[in-house]
């Protein structure tokens, strides 16, 4: 239908209307009003239709715009793109005409975005619900990010952030909340368990415990509350119980210490102690009361036996006094120790004094240890000196049921070396510590009431020996240039030093002095101490070169004597190597004490010339030495017996060997014949008639050894290689004397020529006696080449 049709219809209707008006006879003005009404109604109808169409158009445009806005919001919530990037116009997200087609396209796109949005929201909603389930036990302010609505039927807000970044943040927040939740659960569980255990240990009654804690502390501790306030209340309960437990333990410990000390003092059986402790474990009030009752019972028992405790305390005091080296005056200063009124106060005074002395001993422990070591060394030195004076120890034989001591002399030598090594060090260190202590405290350090520093003062310097008056004293240069004797030929392998000028104090056999009768011009010349004199060829000896004249040595009934090596010279002490002071004759000298004293008195106003160093290879003196040995060793029974040494007869006995040595091979005897038992030693360096003093001259040093033996009578030493050699030498010398035995009277002995001496042999009563310059026969006047 077009407008021409409408116009024709309007004209037709208007014409018909005028005809009707004419027929009706309507006047002109009524006719015009009715035509205007008709035209107004027609216009209103058209306008009404126009308005309805316009409204429909506007509604469609609004719907399209709304759909576009929703699509944009959902895309923004699902994407991490920035807002300015989202503001870029999408050509599909705009209102186009026709509106029906535009709305259709927008609705299809909206459905797609809405589906993706709903799925993302469901995922985040599950995580948010889990987060809320854990955060509900914590404080409301603990969650730090906004959460989407998680209630059922709740509308999905299109503007809520559902981007992947939000999902990651939500997951991180969930992890934080879960860890905190787990930590608090563990804290609540541990605190609750501690509370329950403390209730059990303290013996808390059921009415005084919290039933909820007992019920939920294992299975569901979160029911006890995980807020900070809940944790604080649980900690407060636990701290109160711990403090109460500590107080009970402290009380129980004090009671137990007192009870155990009384148990020790009263001697309670161990089984009773264990049974009591097993029955009263823990910190319950019942156990504490039991300990208190036991303490009361023991205190009552202690009061009944108070005197015993005081006596024990006094014994302990005495031990501390002894360890601190208290004198009697210092002990008397503590008057309670001598009170006879027994009381608790007296016992407490003893205990306090014991505690003070123990503290004092701890403070002085290093000094006391050094003092004890020093006293021990001094005691060992004195014991060793006293033992060395007993010559009978060298001949001691084990009685029935007693064991022999073959290593006694070896132990004495080791002890002597140890004392000589350690004692100076200990004295120096002790002197330094005591001086430091006295400077610090301003009073002397007392041991048994005496200043101990006075007992360890350094020894006085050695006195300078008097100048020798003998004109034949060798010069210092010649003495320094002298050759040392080989150690294999020295007696006992001792170390020898230079002999300084001094006056010998050793008494002679008959108290007379001996002068060198040799030529002074020859005596001034120092002979080599190591030069071996001319000897008889070994082929002429009975024991050499398998000679048919070789005679086996005669065996003696003494088994231990047959295996002894030749005697050796005494070794010097190590501390004597640098000593130049005049020494006293040791008490274990070859002479008796009475004769020694007389001889020393006779020598007090005399001087003995300086003698030259002896030659250990000089065999001339072996005659008198071995003669003395054989005269003292004469078996008179199937078992050997020994004759005590007689100094007065030493000279006569020493020459008996010159007459008897061709009959039998003599056995080497002890160098110290007065010791009543043989002593295995090295080859004899000097005649036995010569009295060896502490200041006798050796190769390079002065020796004053008092205990020079290195083997005991019960030892089984190996036979020295030099034994055979000296046996051969003695046999060779015996042959020479056998040939001249009938013409020895008044003649000089044929052998190795000595320098500075004259020897005469006289045969008396079948014995050959050597007559020397003096009767003593002890000076070193027989110098050899």
UniProtKB/TrEMBL annotation:
Comp. bias (Polar residues): 473-488, 505-522, 623-632, 649-675
GO cellular component: cytoplasm; mitotic spindle midzone
Disordered: annotated span: 457-576, 613-715
Compositionally skewed regions (Basic and acidic residues) per UniProt: 548-562
GO terms under biological process: mitotic spindle midzone assembly
Example of a GO MF term: microtubule binding
Biased composition range(s): Low complexity: 693-705
PANTHER family found in the cross-reference section: FASCETTO-RELATED (PTHR19321:SF41), PROTEIN REGULATOR OF CYTOKINESIS 1 PRC1-RELATED (PTHR19321)
Protein name: Microtubule associated protein
């Amino acid at each position: 239908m077009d407008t021409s049709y409408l116009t024709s219809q309007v004209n037709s209707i208007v014409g018909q209307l005028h005809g009707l008006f004419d027929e009706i006879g309507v006047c002109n003005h009524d006719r015009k009003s009715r035509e205007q009404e008709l035209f107004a109604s027609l216009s209103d109808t058209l306008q009404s239709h126009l308005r309805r169409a316009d409204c429909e158009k506007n509604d469609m445009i609004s719907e399209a715009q709304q759909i576009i806005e929703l699509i944009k919001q959902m895309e923004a919530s699902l994407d991490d793109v920035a807002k300015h990037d989202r503001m870029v116009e999408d050509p599909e997200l705009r209102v186009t005409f026709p509106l029906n087609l535009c709305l259709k396209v927008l609705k299809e796109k909206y459905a797609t975005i809405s589906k993706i949005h709903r799925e993302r929201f469901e995922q985040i909603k599950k995580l948010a619900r889990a987060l809320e389930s854990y955060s509900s036990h914590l404080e409301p302010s603990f969650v730090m990010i906004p959460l989407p609505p998680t209630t059922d039927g709740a509308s999905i807000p299109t503007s809520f952030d559902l981007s992947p970044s939000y999902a990651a943040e939500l997951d991180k927040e969930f992890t934080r909340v879960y860890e905190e939740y787990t930590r608090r659960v563990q804290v609540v569980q541990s605190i609750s368990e501690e509370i329950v255990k403390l209730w059990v240990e303290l013996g808390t009654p059921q009415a005084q415990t919290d039933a909820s804690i007992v019920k939920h502390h294992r299975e569901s501790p979160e029911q006890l509350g995980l807020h900070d306030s809940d944790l604080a209340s649980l900690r407060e309960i636990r701290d109160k119980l711990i403090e109460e437990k500590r107080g009970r333990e402290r009380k129980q410990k004090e009671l137990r210490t007192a009870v155990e000390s009384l148990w020790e003092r009263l001697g309670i059986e161990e089984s009773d102690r264990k049974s009591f402790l097993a029955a009263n474990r823990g910190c319950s009030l019942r156990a504490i009361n039991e300990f208190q009752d036991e303490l009361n019972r023991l205190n009552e028992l202690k009061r009944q036996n108070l005197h015993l405790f005081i006596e024990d305390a006094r014994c302990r005091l005495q031990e501390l006094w002894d360890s601190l080296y208290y004198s009697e005056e210092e002990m008397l200063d503590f008057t309670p120790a001598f009170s006879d009124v027994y009381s608790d106060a007296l016992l407490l005074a003893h205990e306090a004094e014991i505690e003070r002395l123990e503290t004092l001993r701890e403070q002085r422990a290093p000094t006391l240890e050094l003092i004890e070591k020093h006293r021990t060394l001094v005691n060992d030195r004195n014991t060793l000196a006293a033992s060395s004076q007993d010559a009978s120890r060298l001949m001691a034989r084990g009685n029935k049921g007693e064991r022999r001591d073959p290593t006694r002399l070896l132990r004495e030598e080791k002890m002597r070396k140890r004392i000589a090594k350690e004692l100076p060090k200990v004295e120096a260190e002790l002197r330094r510590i005591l001086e430091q202590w006295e400077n610090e405290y301003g009073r002397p350090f007392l041991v048994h009431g005496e200043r101990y520093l006075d007992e360890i003062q350094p020894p006085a310097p050695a006195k300078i020996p008097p100048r020798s008056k003998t004109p034949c004293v060798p010069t210092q240069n010649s003495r320094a240039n002298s050759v040392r004797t080989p150690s294999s030929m020295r007696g006992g392998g001792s170390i020898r030093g230079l002999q300084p000028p001094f006056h010998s104090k050793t008494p002679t056999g008959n108290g007379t002095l001996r002068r060198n009768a040799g030529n002074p011009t020859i005596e001034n010349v120092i002979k080599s101490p190591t030069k071996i004199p001319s000897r008889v060829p070994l082929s002429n000896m009975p024991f050499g070169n398998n000679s048919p004249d070789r005679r086996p040595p005669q065996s003696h009934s003494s088994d231990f004597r047959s295996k002894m090596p030749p005697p050796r010279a005494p070794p010097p002490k190590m501390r004597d190597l640098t000593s130049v002071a005049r020494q006293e004759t040791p008490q274990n000298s070859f002479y008796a004490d009475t004769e020694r004293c007389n001889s020393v008195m006779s020598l007090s106003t005399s001087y003995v010339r300086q003698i030259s160093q002896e030659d250990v290879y000089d065999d001339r003196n072996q005659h008198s030495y071995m003669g003395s040995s054989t005269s003292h060793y004469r078996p008179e029974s199937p078992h050997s017996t020994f004759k005590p040494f007689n100094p007065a007869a030493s000279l006569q006995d020493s020459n008996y060997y010159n007459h008897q040595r061709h009959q039998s091979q003599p056995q080497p005897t002890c160098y110290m014949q007065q010791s009543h038992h043989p002593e295995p030693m090295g080859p004899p360096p000097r005649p036995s008639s010569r009295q060896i003093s502490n200041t006798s001259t050796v190769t390079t040093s002065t020796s004053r050894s008092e205990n020079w033996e290195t083997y005991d009578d019960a030892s089984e030493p190996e036979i020295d290689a030099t034994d055979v050699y000296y046996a051969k030498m003695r046999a060779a010398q015996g042959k020479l004397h056998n040939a001249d035995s009938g013409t020895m009277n008044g003649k000089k002995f044929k052998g190795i020529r000595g320098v500075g001496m004259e020897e005469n042999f006289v045969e008396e009563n079948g014995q050959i006696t050597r007559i020397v310059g003096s009767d003593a026969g002890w000076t070193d006047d027989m110098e050899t080449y």
